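Morning. Coffee machine broken again, so started the prediction first thing and wrote up yesterday's gels while waiting. Chain of 132 residues, entered below exactly as on the submission form.
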Amino acid sequence: LSLMDRMRVQGLLPTVITYSAAVSACEKEGLWEQAISLMEHMQGQAVMPNEFTYNAAISACGKGSQSEPALQLLSEMRKNGLVSNDITFKAAIIACERAGECAVGVSLLNEAVSLGTLSPWRSTKVLDLHGF
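Came back before lunch.
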């Protein structure tokens, strides 16, 4: 957030790309609270997050084993008219798995398969559902 504030002081306005890069950096480090804080900050500045921003924030929640905020972001994403893709679903499912919300993870997987977003037969990565 301080970087965004310093940009404003310099007369530079952060864009969705700037915020997405910052949220992605938080995701890489597993800083889910900071990722969500950046999402809130950007919306307060009338910068609307895109699919990349949401995917990074949901993934950050997964790295922090936080299913509730991940699911809230997924819901918000949909309310804003953005489409959930395979990355979105995988990140949300991982968040649920790590938080011990197995039934919710299976429900998301079923939804993604029924929408054609994920195919259990064409995946290049293994999704461990043993805990479900």
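Residues 16-29 form the longest helix (14 residues). Going to sketch it on the whiteboard this afternoon.
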